[in-house]
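Worked example 2:
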Amino acid sequence: MRKTVLTYFCLLFGATLQGMSMSLFLFPHSIPSGGAAGIAILMNHWFHLSLGFSLWLANIVFLFFAIRYFGYTWTVKTILSVAITSTTVNILTLNVPHLHVHLLVDILAGSIFFGIGVGILIRAGASSGGMVIPALMIASYKNWSPGKVMMGINFLIFLATALVIDYKIVIFAIICQFFSTNIIDYIYELKLHKIKFLEASWRKR
């Protein structure tokens, strides 16, 4: 029971950190934290849908793949993390003003919060959804680090976002990905001998 409570607390904490990084630091500059976030920004730009709802839509297709590849438990945890992240984005976007300090400071802060959040989610047996799902599939099959695979997949979506909104976005997004994916890999590879429930458990079922 204690293990289950701690696991879901980590899901709540990781997903909330991810939502904070998007809504407070990255989305105000139209910088996607990842592929699904890039799709969400494009949907917001084209169809004027809320960013939280767009984030949900961007994740639906990949969640179907997740059920088949990773199993129901992992997918349910991922759905929960996506729901928490989307809710956090909606609440903070509507109610918290963006206290802009400097673009590079926002990118750095967003990258750190995002990397820590996603790293915790992966260690807790879930993911942030979106492009993390195919990234974990490829990482599992090839035995590669999930952060580096995710960066490669996201690059094309960043490019599309840059072409539609602003070419500078792809540069900012790559900087964000560089920091966040290295943090994700660090947390993923971190040895937690005393916290057994945080063993990375996303390998194919």
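The chain is about 75% helix and 0% strand. Residues 2-198 form one domain.
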